Amino acid sequence: MSNGGTTRIRFAEEADAAVIARIHMASRSAAMPYLPPQQRSHEQVTGWVQDVLLKRCRTWVAVRDAEIIGYAALDGGRLEHLYLRPDVRRQGVGTLLLDEVRWHSPDGVCLRVFQQNTDARAFYESHGFTVLDTNDGDRNMENLPDMTLRWTRR
């Protein structure tokens, strides 16, 4: 695990789909152990990345030492995903991805986060996001209480 290299952000390409899928799956299970176990295979998640995510969202990857270590996906003004490889958390990678997303979002960014995801909530709140609403979970697949956060340019 080297964190010696510099991290750069670039647009995601279709060739990145399998790595994005691996990061998505590893990050969800590491950061959100309360979620039900992943039912989809790596191949199925890779297909979703290629056919849905990369077509619907502007997606960026964080690259260090030629390896993708995180990604962020923006659908209009909504940050749909920001996931990091579990071994690179708390090294500034999420902030780099979030800065890229915000730079491309002059009208602000909103996102949903599970209320239980205290690490993510603290991360977004430390970057100026405020709570817009809370919900009992009837608007997400996992049926878990969530909240909408919003950031606007000062």
TrEMBL record:
Keywords: Acyltransferase, Transferase. SUPFAM superfamilies: Acyl-CoA N-acyltransferases (Nat). GO terms for molecular function: acyltransferase activity. It holds the Pfam family Acetyltransf_7. It comes from the Bacteria. Residues 7-154 form the N-acetyltransferase domain. Its EC number is 2.3.1.-. This is GNAT family N-acetyltransferase. It comes from Streptomyces orinoci (Streptoverticillium orinoci).
